[in-house]
Amino acid sequence: MALFLCFLFLIVSSAAACDRCVHQSKVAYFSRASALSSGACGYGSMAIGFNSGNLAAAVSSIYKDGAGCGACFQIRCKDTNLCSSGGTRVIVTDLNRNNQTDFVLSSRAFMAMAKKGRGQDILKQGIVGVEYKRVPCEYKNQNLAVRVEESSKNPNYLAIKLLYQGGQTEVVAIDFAKVGSSNWGFMSRNYGAVWDSDRVPSGALQFRFVVTAGFDGKWIWARNVLPEDWKVGMTYDSGVQITDIAQEGCSPCDDGIWK
């Protein structure tokens, strides 16, 4: 198991570190935010409330089979006459299957790249050239949360979705055990941000998350997350915050014109 985790850290975390470099691409937009709320990450209607509706669908190299769900990116368009220098920050909630652009943004996020009063002008462009980089997600005074999905059945089958994952991190494995027990089982990624297992014991549950950030990987232990009588549709505080920032892993890391 230890050798497997070391290999996993090297493969996944190196990609995460390179996300910090500035990339050049194009972005389009969805006319309806609901198109992103029903996305591949599985956030459902909750997504519309994320980040003031500044959402994005990302290509597979960023989506990473669901590991990129919830990642934050700063995106700005290159047209300095039309767009602000700061751009907009988005959260990945879906998979972009359009290979012509790295992201498809919600219309709110797309307009947020424009200078004040130019939102409708940028919408008329449809697709714009941009530069982007991954940035840490920040949830002040908010711990990592576990939402129990409606398909869960207490005991035995449990499906969870992770919310408010901070820093510049990716969760690549999840273990569970009854509180007070050292008999750990593992969950598998079902799809997007949803993990599940059909071998969950009865009783209160603790979790261990394998988190990567750049070239660093570690266990984060949430000692008492789900109560014995956990309910579907409920969101539970893990009691831990994730704030790790990825170390640089690209050589050289070209910042383009980003200052």
Automatic annotation (TrEMBL):
Location(s) in or outside the cell: Secreted
Pfam families referenced in this protein's UniProt entry, alphabetically: DPBB_1, Expansin_C
Domain of life (superkingdom): Eukaryota
Primary location: secreted
Record's keyword annotation contains DNA-binding: no
Span of domain Expansin-like CBD: 156-238
UniProt cross-references to SUPFAM superfamilies, sorted A to Z: Barwin-like endoglucanases, PHL pollen allergen
Domain Expansin-like EG45 per the UniProt entry, residue ranges: 38-142
SMART domains: DPBB_1
Family the UniProt entry places it in: Belongs to the expansin family.
Name of the protein described by the UniProt record: Expansin-like A2
Organism name: Salix udensis
